[in-house]
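A.,

Following up on our hallway conversation. Structure tokens first:
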């Protein structure tokens, strides 16, 4: 267990140098250019991950949910990813997620809800008007981005499904298909990837059910066709490629929490004052700002979304980390 944890948990931000990033992307591009990936068929995957199935999405910018940050470059947001179903290196998702088929795609909705159903992704996308929101995303590893996501508040969906009075939590399950996801064979996590929120957190207008980014549908490596974006929590709470949404009375068991409960709590609110057992969370590196003279940014409480504080009034956030 100890060995597994230390070999497989997320890499501390201090170990991710700009050099690593640049190198992995450069290598990927060189391989593409040299045709080195062709033999294994990876070039097709890589290219489809970049372009195929991406459609323009009409979304209205929501100024109330637009961070003042400079958006991260699309090239960075789509090539430096965590999506362990496709491998553990930051460049793996961009390289290998092209094998994911995002149509047809359905989402099973069950548990403590008056209208359990299996919903088609295209119907789900039309449930509410799409908005564009620039959100900061802070990974527990110590890096961050600012991404123009497209979607609508998760609360819109919840309202239409009519949870029962017993629904206290909402659980999100990602696809785990070894035929389409080469990383699912590994034992890094107990698949499928599961995340969950308390129902009031899920109903906070900031919680975004996300179907696109940068004006188009999501790239596979970013969690197509449907993911969560909960900007005041560490990135791992924002499950990708969701196939099931379940309403529960009791707090669900979540994937990272099961793997290393003392490192990844259920709440996982961004909190500069609560260190990860193996590294500080006080600062972060904004992807794209990694210049020689660039300083790290100070991490903000709730990732700079103080409006969520009332969800946790009276709670000891060091205990419920
Ligand atoms: N299914 C699934 N969802 C996931 C992950 C994953 O490995 N599998 N990684 C998480 C982590 S650790 C982060 S930081 C964000 C990264 O999202 P991005 O690659 O779109 O920036 O996705 C989260 N969602
Ligand atoms: Mo992360």
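Then the amino acids I'd put at each of the 321 positions:
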């Amino acid at each position: 267990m100890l060995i597994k944890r230390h070999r497989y948990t997320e890499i501390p931000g201090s170990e991710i140098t700009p050099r690593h990033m640049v190198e992995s992307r450069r290598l990927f591009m060189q391989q593409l250019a040299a045709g080195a990936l062709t033999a294994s068929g990876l070039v097709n995957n890589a290219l489809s991950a970049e372009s195929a199935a991406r459609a323009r999405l009409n979304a209205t910018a929501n100024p109330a949910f637009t961070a003042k940050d400079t958006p991260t470059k699309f090239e960075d947001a789509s090539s430096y990813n965590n999506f362990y179903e496709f491998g553990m290196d930051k460049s793996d998702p961009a390289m290998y997620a092209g094998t994911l088929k995002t149509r047809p795609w359905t989402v099973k909705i069950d548990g403590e809800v008056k209208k359990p159903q299996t919903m088609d992704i295209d119907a789900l996308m039309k449930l509410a008007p799409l908005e564009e929101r620039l959100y900061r995303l802070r990974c527990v590893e110590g890096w961050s981005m600012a991404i123009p996501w497209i979607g609508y508040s998760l609360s819109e969906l919840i309202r239409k499904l009519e949870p029962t009075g017993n629904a206290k939590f909402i659980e999100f399950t990602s696809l785990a298909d070894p035929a389409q996801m080469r990383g699912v064979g590994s034992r890094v996590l107990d698949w499928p990837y599961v995340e969950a929120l308390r129902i009031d957190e899920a109903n906070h207008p900031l919680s975004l059910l996300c179907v696109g980014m940068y004006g188009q549908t999501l790239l596979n490596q970013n969690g197509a066709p449907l993911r969560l974006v909960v900007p005041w929590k560490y990135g791992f709470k924002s499950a990708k490629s969701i196939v099931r949404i379940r309403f529960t009375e009791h707090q669900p068991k979540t994937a990272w929490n099961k793997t290393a409960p003392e490192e990844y709590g259920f709440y996982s609110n961004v909190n500069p004052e609560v260190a990860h057992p193996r590294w500080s969370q006080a600062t972060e590196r904004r992807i794209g700002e990694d210049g020689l003279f660039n300083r790290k940014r100070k991490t903000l409480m709730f990732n700079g979304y103080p409006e969520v504080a009332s969800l946790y009034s009276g709670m000891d956030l060091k205990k419920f980390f």
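The chain has one domain: 13-312. Curious whether your intuition agrees with the design.

B.
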